[in-house]
Amino acid sequence: MKNIVLVSAAALALSGCATIIKGPSQDIMVNTNPAGARCVLNREGAKIAQVDPTPGTVKVDKTKYDITLVCDKVGYQESTYIVHSGIEGATFGNIALGGLIGWGVDSATGSDNHYDSPVNLTLAPVVTPPPRAAR
User: Fold this and answer.
1) Cut 0.90: pTM above it
2) Contact criterion met (CB below 8 Å) for 80 and 69
3) Which of 54, 72, 111, 120 is the most buried (most CB within 10 A)?
């Protein structure tokens, strides 16, 4: 019985709570107004995903780095939005229950991070100046 308790305690300490509950990836829902835009998700200068057309959902690996979302549609100005990486709520429970080892597991897998979702972005129409009057 004592061995079962020790093994269970070791398993709890060595596992990351957010890793188990939330995992190292997440879905991000992208909506644009108007719909039908093409959106590229970049992180640290590299393309990691694309939604084409919007609305749509993509699965991304979670990290501590923000994602830059760039959307375009014919007749509209290109629009950019920063999807911030925040702390996953389950991380705090893991620190309380699993200590530094559990938090280390979550941090190594990215599971201690979370991106905002859904992302809602309004595209501004391209404004063309009126033609000049002839002199």
Assistant:
1) no
2) yes
3) 111
